[in-house]
Fold:
Amino acid sequence: MSEKNEEKNIPAAAAAAPKRKIGGLGRGLNALIEGSYEKKSERLGLVPHPVNSVGLIPVGQIQANPYQPRTHFDQDALQELAESIKIQGIIQPVTVRQTGTNSYQLISGERRLQASKLAGLDAIPAYIRKADDQQMLEMALIENIQRENLNAIEIALSYQRLVSECNLKQEELGDRVGKNRSTVTNYLRLLKLPPDIQIGLRDSVISMGHARALINIDSMDQQLALFRRIVAEELSVRRVEQLVRTGGAADTEKKPTQPATPAVPPAELKRAERHLSERFGSRVLVKPGPQGRGEIKIVFDSVEDMQRILHILQPA
Structure:
């Protein structure tokens, strides 16, 4: 049968049906969301969505989370995520709260929202839930701690904000983020280190192990001195722990230098050499050393000449 005849045998209803366009949302999630709404206007977020539901919301209606703990996102990683979204769609909806008619505020999913904009999506799936400001902060912080590749200082700062701004005790905080209390405490102690060391940890100049060893030093000057030595000598964590345990960290402090001994003027050295050469009848060299030390060298030409010099040195 020719292709032309095949076309004639296509049912009229099927031929008349418009082709369904699959957007950048991913087939499964796209179908799930479209199937839950009867009106296109509701799917596109033109009317309020009920709380605890998932709907398509235009990206222009979603405001950034003012409590977002991260201010910097790797642009290369965002672009990679955007390319993935173009192919696979949004795998997991972002989470928002409704702040007004056709107005939403992001709770979690900042990277997904930014990547969706880069991918050119007009609307993205979002889970709408009810949350006050404190819940917004708590959810944003916990989501970042659990999902993002945060450095140790960012984690510590997030823990501190949860304790101070969300009024969580360390035990409660551990339960919320799935960590035991000692782990939470170790992170919070990092914030007691001098700023230079915190920056070094943030920028991966030193590791978490180095920082935990430095915490056990009481003196800030000793902490900074050992930190500089770690960087300069590329000390291992084990070596740093050994220095702290044996008290060797104190040796890294800059010790006061002894006052420099005034140098002997060259003219005076020459005068001394000339005087001694005349005294012994041989060549005499005067060599100054560090901190006032030095040596006097008498040159002899033979055994007899040496005996003559020794005779001169004998007391009268």
The mean pLDDT is 77. Residues 27-131 form a domain with the Conserved hypothetical protein from pyrococcus furiosus pfu- 392566-001, ParB domain fold (CATH 3.90.1530.30). The first strand starts at residue 53 and ends at 58.
